Amino acid sequence: MPRPRVHDLDALLDVAERLVASSTDVTVRGLAAAANVPNGTIYHAFGSLNALLARVWLRAATEFLNLQTSMVDTASSPVEAVVAAADTPAVFASRRPDGARMLLKVRGDRLFGPDLPDELAEALHAVDKRLVALLVRLARQVWDRGDGLAVEVITTCVVDLPTAFFRRDITDPLVRERLAAAVRAVLTVPPREKDRS
């Protein structure tokens, strides 16, 4: 019979999220000390530090994408759907500040490593696919095309601009207004026509 779990794993993931958001170097020892658990708890529950960090990132990214999809679904027009998608990091940061800082700081593909279980690697790939599907959906809504050139413009609006704007202050209303204006301006210039050769 397995021993009952003594430590709250969600609380451990919360501590790890906070550490990743505020530090560049997270170690098993540092995480265990911050969470007030033995080192073995981390290895027993997650297998490795890499697997734990992937779970932390996956949890935040999934919640972020759920919020982003919801905001896109309720937007009043295709352009406003792109603006809403771009504004999602600020809304997410108001709910989960550490999660937002971590997602802005750490790219999911940096979490892949040799000791990452297959199911986690697949889950991380699935998050990427969800994001790409949302970008394609937005491109089709705005220009009725989902090719690479159209998706590239949407990516500028939804990924590149928010990353640049929110590096300063993700909660500043003026920054959010400027981001919305920048997104709308970018969308006034349609993507290049596809090369027909």
Automatic annotation (TrEMBL):
Protein name stated in the entry: Transcriptional regulator, TetR family
Gene Ontology MF annotations: DNA binding
Domain of life where this protein originates: Bacteria
Domain HTH tetR-type per the UniProt entry, residue ranges: 13-56
Keywords carried by this UniProt record: DNA-binding
Pfam families according to UniProt: TetR_N
SUPFAM superfamilies linked to this entry: Homeodomain-like
Organism: Amycolatopsis pretoriensis
InterPro entries xrefs: Homeodomain-like_sf (IPR009057), HTH_TetR (IPR001647)
